[in-house]
Amino acid sequence: MMEKVYVFGHKKPDTDSVCASITLSYLKNKLGLNTTPRVLGSINNETKFVLDYFKFDEPKYLNDVKVQIKDMEYNKEAMINEYYSIADTFNMMNSLKVTGLPIIDNNKYLVGYVNLKEISKYLLGENINVLNTSYDNIVKVLDGKSVLKFDDEIKGTVIASAYKSSSFIKDIKLDSTNILLAADRNAIVEYAIDSKVKLIVIIGDYELDDELINKARKNKVNIIYTKYDTFMAVNKIKVSNYVKNINVTKTPITFKDNDFRDDFVEIANKYGHTNYPVVDKNNKCVGMLRLVDSNNYKKKSVILVDHNQLIQSVEGLEQAEIIEIVDHHNLGTIGTNNPINFRSMPVGCTNTLIYLLYKESNVEIPNDIAGLMLSAILSDTLLLKSPTTTKLDIEVANKLAAIAGVDITSYGIEMIKAGSSIKGLSSEEVVFQDFKEFKYEDIKIGIGQVNTLDIDEILKDKNSYINVLNKMEDDGYKISLLFITDVIKNGSYILYNGNSKDIVSACYKVSDIEEGKYLDGVVSRKKQMLPMLLEYLER
User: Fold this and answer.
1) What is the band of 126 on the pLDDT scale with cuts at 50, 70, 90?
2) pLDDT tens track for 374-391
3) Any residues with CB less than 8 A from the CB of 41 and at least 6 apart, and which?
4) Which domains does the chain have, with CATH numbers?
């Protein structure tokens, strides 16, 4: 399956950034990419109105694009069932070139972890002649032949017939808890059958006669043939035991497939283990990750719209692969390791650029997509009245309105009304619903803007908004502004944090400025609000 590419706007999604994510994603999918639109925060009322009007679902939230365990090249085959033999476990370690393996149950749930050190301890232990395994494991390990099988599981103590027959029969007491290894000693074999031992392993390519076989069948004694001699059979049968019989680590350090690579590297360096099981959200094992594999990973691919500043973008962007940027703002701080497609023009809206991309690619614009693009242009240009509006914006808006089948004026006013209400919103929610953060050297700037018809409602409670702006100083903001934009009057009322009064007064050329001052014609954050601040700071 083709790799998924995330398309998203800035952290404080407005109508342009949300609609641009959807409209550009649609175009890219038509051109053969596998993209999906995302948002980096809650959408505002205006954008909700637009999506509802043209019947689009809200894009899913994207928390970050950090490298996760699932992006890393860990071994998805590295695990062993608890009912596999120690020999199988050792052989898998060799084939995968690892020193340990996660142990899973029949449903793939993680039940432990085993390494070569624990296998060595087991093989040097005192009770290695005790078996708790399956009949099939023993056949496989001894490269044997199944002769009689009555039990799937074999539990018992291994005894080799190293004595003379008479001495063995006289001195060794056998019962159903014994597993006998014997060669061509029919007297001992018959004694074992009569004692109803759990299993008899006939070694050295010797075969029992029919009489003994029939007697064993009657007594339900399991029988296996092996070509190995006594020495080899004794040494091999002990590794037919279930791997779960070893003193394995029951609760190893694990990572989920959605954990971050940075966290893995930190923990792995702290504890110094070589291998770590990887599990899904249900604790089912999906593989094993080695510390040496931590540099083998696939970055998430992203396309940015309506922004190109790192501070406005998704968490972990520096760990992602940016393949394209479509924006209409000034150049910001984002850099890339490789050349990318970067489309930027001094127009009023990102969707004006996206319209051009559709035309250049000869992709037809559907009615609903045209509606989103038009809505974004009307929103960003304040119904084509903002100083950021270009002739191209107006031309594109009229073409899109014809495709979408809406009247620009009536639809635009309906959209603005839907988005301008602040009913039920707290002062903090109003400040941050369309808020952007900027930095000039070490100076942190925050500018919020709200387009509303409820001007008086905000201004009569302006102190609560000023308190929000003042509190932002605790988060490092030197300058915090809120512009309440009146679309009808084509101007904005400004609120600011107290410590920035002199700066604001100088920037906007109003001596001894007061909170709530009306700035005629100031409606664009991009062309009027921010540039005046930056010019002052440069001076």
Assistant:
1) low
2) 999 999 998 998 888 999
3) 11, 12, 13, 61
4) 4-66+300-419 (3.90.1640.10), 70-123+245-293 (3.10.580.10), 144-227 (3.40.1390.20), 427-538 (3.10.310.20)
